[in-house]
Amino acid sequence: MNKLRRIRRLLLDSRGTFTIEASFVMPLILICTLSLLFLALFVFQSSSAQHTAGIAADRTAFIWDNSRRDPITGAFNPGEDDGLYWRLHSDSVSDLFAFLVPNAGAQIVLPTSGASNDSSPENKLRRVGAAIAKDWSGLMQYSNKGLSREVSVNVNRPFHKPAYADKWLLSEVQSGAYSQVVDPVESIRIIDLTRTFISEVKGRITPRAALATFVEPRSAPQQRTVINSHASAARYLQALVNGSEQTVRVHGTTDRQVDALDANEVAHQAFYTFNESQLRNVQMPKDAELLQAGTQIKGVVWHFFKQSSKDTVTLSASFRQELQRKGIVIVIHE
Predict the structure, then answer these.
(1) Membrane spanning segments where (predicted)?
(2) Among 28, 109, 132, 334, which one is most buried in terms of CB atoms within 10 A?
């Protein structure tokens, strides 16, 4: 009887319950807190992987048209580029024929070392990949599909977690990003060329007229003009600019004989045999005065012809500069 009373008294006694509850609750709270910390670390590293992949893809796509660009800032020195035809040899053109010939495409494995100076697709990927932290592994790829040119970056890194979280957290963080390579300069050039070409060609020639161009000519082509004197040179200029010989009054009783004055009031003068001193002291002042007045002549062009195929037209540098200051254009016919 006394034994039953002691058992009942023990069961009904509330002393020590806090200690017992705490011994169960505190470990549970600690485990939950640590789990939340590891979850936060996993989310942070996943975000870091997404950021790293996205930045690498965007940078690679941005510098793709010029491998001399800085992979971080995109800056480059004027005149440093990959040449006019880089799209033929530095843009993985072979990807377009992958349906005929198996092609692995341009790709590099991360981490990677520094890049070289060539402009190959792999080197472009490597220049950006070298800026990615060495603790990231993964793959960078580039594919050229014609209208769609794409850079893809996939990165991963091991994630260390407690053993009890193996079922809820992955053993590594990984992410991927894609970026399209755009070429705004080339796009504007193609659009402008197409727009201009269509407007120029549209309605310019009919199909019947196009067929007529394939008819054999009935007349022989004109013989090449032979220039062996000042007169023949003047006639050549008149035919070239559709001008005529004119006499222009400079001032007072001083006249200027223009070999060919075109419709735009530009005076073309032929020189077959000449003396630089005479041109400087006699001809140049007259033309300079006519240009300054601007009433009869809007421009002056001096044409120099050599006397034979073995000769060369020689003008001193000081005389050329003086003519340029006076506004007189020089054309040398070789």
Answers:
(1) 20-44
(2) 132
pTM over 0.90: no
Instruction: Evaluate if residue 239 carries a pLDDT over 80.
Output: yes
Distance (Å) of CA 192 to CA 70, 183, 203, 295: 29, 14, 19, 39
Alpha-carbon distance of 161 to 44, in angstroms, equals: 14
Residue type, 29: I
CB atoms under 10 Å from CB of 59, counted, come to 24
Average pLDDT over residues 275-289: 86
Longest CA span, the chain: 157
Strand pairing category for 299-305 and 266-271:
parallel
| Closest C-alpha among 121, 146, 115, 141 to residue 56 | 141
DSSP string computed for 223-257? PPP---SHHHHHHHHHHHHT-EEEEEEEETTEEEE
Residue 138's pLDDT band (cuts 50, 70, 90): very high
Q: Are 175 and 49 in contact (CB under 8 A)?
A: yes
Best CA proximity match to 124, nearest among 87, 157, 154: 87
What pLDDT does residue 293 have?
82
Burial of 27 (0-12, 13-18, 19+ CB in 10 A): exposed
**For residues 191-208, average pLDDT:** 77
